[in-house]
Structure formats: structure tokens, C-alpha cells
């Protein structure tokens, strides 16, 4: 290695860190503007009965199109929103919009089925005062029964600040809102925690689903999770089902519900409503088993 190389590399490194910091600051500013201008949208991904594709509900997934950068994945901007506290305002908007949507679906499906909406909630929102009141106000405003809403909390955030978050979740369950542990299997819940957690549903993380077809060990793990859920009286939903093989294996292992590209990608609000307005409210059989890039 020539003598100047290390220094040059460092310069380049410095420059890229600088760029990253500037980009992040710009993203923060843009996100703050987006919050005041309400330029977010929600997509809705069906949650279905594994075998039939019958729609039980939809998970609301927030979308943000930056004016010049284009679509920014939620995994990125939600993290920034959490750092800056903007997540509270974004979360409020998401909650109201999702509850408004479920009110519409329940009208469409009146007398036939009662789809729910599942809303991702970050630990920051749970920690904010009066989260329960916010949820029940949103329900009342839209005239939606609490059974119309499920809240998803990631396993890792449930473990981080248990007392506050757990009390809040317990209060939500008392009014009839259901609670799911998102990305289950990626945190480190102990069995004794799990038994005491104020939740109704486990969502098995996509990392299990995506390796299930290749590995007997993963299959055994999923089977153990499904068994555990049964013992604890919890419902299970498998995330990230992309192929028929995965769907069939999950079904064989006793996992009754699923979500993933095989059934449907996340849909714009109108498309979700159209799907529910159909005669059956079943996701049509997927033509391809692998996601196309879109
Ligand atoms: P999540 O809650 O685990 O949501 C599932 C993610 O997996 C979504 O990504 C969804 O589009 C994607 N997905 C669904 N089916 C498949 C599949 O078959 N294959 C693959 N490869 N991916 C699939 P998305 O929309 O990019 O969201 C990423 C994460 O951002 C979410 O993970 C959630 O943690 C967070 N997020 C999304 N919306 C909100 C929100 O409104 N509030 C909060 N706090 N977080 C949100
Ligand atoms: Mg989720
Ligand atoms: Mg998840
Ligand atoms: Mg996830």
C-alpha cells in the first residue's frame, strides 16, 4: 500500500460521512415539512386465512414520497421520525387515517364480514401521555368498534420499556382493541415475559417464513412458535409469505393466518376497498410466487 493511500481513503470516508450527515439533516427537515403538510399516504396489505385467501383485515403501512428523492422506505424515515419526536404527529395521522379506512370497509362489508385494520405503533407513541385516549377518540370519531383495530408493537420495543408500554397496552385491550407482537422471533422474549405480555397475536417475522422451505430446523422453530402461541392462547400470523411452498408448509405446521406478496402486495386505499367490495373478499390466487421489483 503506497503511503498516501490511507490518507486519501480517510478523506473519501470523511467526505461520505459528511454527505450522509447533510443528507440526514435534509431528510429531517423535509420530514418535518411533510408532517405539517400531511403528505403521507397509507398502503394496506391484506391479512388472510392461509388456505382460502379470505381477507381478515389489512395492515396499514405508511408511505412518504420525498419531493426530489422520491419514495423513502418507512424503515428509514420512521427511524428518523423516532429520533426527532416527529413520530408522534405521524403516528396520530396514521391512526386517524387507518381508522377512517376501516370505517369505510365495514360499511362496504356490512353484514358480511368485519375486517380490521392493523396499525404499527412505535414505543415512543406508547410512552406519550394519553395514548389510550387518542385511540378511543379516533374510534369514536369514525364510529368504529374497538374490534376494528389491532395495534402492532415490535417485540424488541416491548422488551425495552416494559412498565409504561405494558400498562398502556393492557388498557387498550380492556377497551377491546387487539394487540400484536410484530416481528416475533427477532427479539429475545423469555417464556415468562411472553406469558405476561398484554397481547393477543404473534406475527412471526419474515426471516422465519423466508427460510422455512430450505431448512428443517427453521420448520421446527416455526412449529414451536405456533405451539407456544396455542398454549398461551394467542393467534398467529406469518409475515412475508412469498411462495405457495411457504404457504403450504406454514399451513402444515398449523399456522392459520398469513400475509405476504403471495397473497397481495400492499395496496392503495381504493384498491383495498375494491378487493373487499368483491363478492367474496378473497385475495385472488397469486400468479407468480416471487416478488417482482416495483
Ligand atoms: P412491518 O410492520 O413488519 O411490516 C411488514 C413489512 O414487510 C412491510 O414493509 C411490507 O411491505 C413488507 N412485506 C409484506 N409482505 C412481504 C413479502 O412477502 N416479502 C417481503 N420481502 N416483504 C414483505 P414496509 O412497508 O417497507 O414497512 C417496513 C417497516 O416500517 C414495517 O415493518 C414497520 O416496522 C414500519 N412501519 C410501516 N408503517 C409504519 C407506521 O405507520 N408506523 C410505524 N411506527 N412504523 C411503520
Ligand atoms: Mg407491522
Ligand atoms: Mg412485521
Ligand atoms: Mg418487519
From TrEMBL:
Keywords: Membrane, Transmembrane, Transmembrane helix
Ranges of residues in domain EAL: 24-280
Protein name: EAL domain-containing protein
Residues of the full protein shown: 744 to 1037 of 1038
Amino acid at each position: 500500500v503506497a503511503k498516501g493511500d490511507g490518507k486519501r481513503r480517510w478523506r473519501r470516508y470523511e467526505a461520505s460521512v459528511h454527505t450522509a450527515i447533510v443528507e440526514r439533516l435534509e431528510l429531517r427537515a423535509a420530514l418535518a415539512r411533510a408532517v405539517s403538510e400531511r403528505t403521507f399516504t397509507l398502503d394496506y396489505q391484506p391479512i388472510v386465512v392461509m388456505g382460502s385467501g379470505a381477507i381478515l383485515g389489512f395492515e396499514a403501512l405508511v408511505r412518504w414520497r420525498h419531493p426530489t428523492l422520491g419514495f423513502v422506505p418507512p424503515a428509514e424515515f420512521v427511524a428518523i421520525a423516532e429520533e426527532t419526536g416527529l413520530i408522534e404527529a405521524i403516528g396520530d395521522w396514521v391512526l386517524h387515517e387507518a381508522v377512517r379506512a376501516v370505517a369505510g370497509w365495514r360499511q362496504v362489508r356490512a353484514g358480511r364480514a368485519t375486517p380490521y385494520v392493523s396499525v404499527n405503533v412505535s414505543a415512543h407513541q406508547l410512552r406519550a401521555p394519553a395514548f389510550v385516549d387518542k385511540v378511543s377518540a379516533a374510534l369514536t370519531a369514525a364510529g368504529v368498534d374497538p374490534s376494528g383495530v389491532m395495534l402492532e408493537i415490535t417485540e424488541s420495543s416491548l422488551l425495552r420499556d416494559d412498565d409504561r408500554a405494558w400498562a398502556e397496552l393492557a388498557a387498550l385491550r380492556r377497551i377491546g382493541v387487539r394487540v400484536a407482537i410484530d416481528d416475533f422471533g427477532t427479539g429475545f422474549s423469555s417464556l415468562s415475559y411472553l406469558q405476561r405480555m398484554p397481547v393477543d397475536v404473534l406475527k412471526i417475522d419474515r426471516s422465519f417464513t423466508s427460510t422455512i422451505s430450505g431448512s428443517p430446523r427453521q420448520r421446527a422453530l416455526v412449529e414451536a412458535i405456533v405451539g407456544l402461541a396455542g398454549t398461551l392462547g394467542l393467534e398467529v400470523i406469518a409475515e412475508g409469505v412469498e411462495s405457495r411452498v411457504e404457504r403450504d408448509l406454514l399451513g402444515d405446521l398449523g399456522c392459520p393466518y398469513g400475509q405476504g406478496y403471495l397473497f397481495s402486495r400492499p395496496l392503495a386505499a381504493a384498491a383495498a376497498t375494491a378487493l373487499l367490495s368483491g363478492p367474496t373478499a378473497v385475495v385472488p390466487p397469486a400468479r407468480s410466487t416471487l416478488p417482482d421489483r416495483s
